[in-house]
Amino acid sequence: MNPGVKSGRCPKCGNRTNQLEAVMIPIAGQAWQALSLQCPHCHAILGVQMNPDQLVDETVARVAKRLGRD
Predict the structure, then answer these.
(1) What is the mean pLDDT of each run of 10 residues along the chain (70 residues)?
(2) Residue 10 CA to its chain's centroid (Å)
(3) The pTM is what?
């Protein structure tokens, strides 16, 4: 393990986090959803990203439509 990396601990509360809570949040005015990764102890937001499943599905649908396979 790299001693310079503080993995496994929440930077806010300091508790060990061997799992994260994933919360789906809508993006204002959009049909997209984001995934918020939160500490299960203090609920601090540790990261936010686009919902990868929705992103892949939308990309496949748009490529299929462009190829005339919708």
Answers:
(1) 60 84 72 80 87 86 87
(2) 16
(3) 0.55
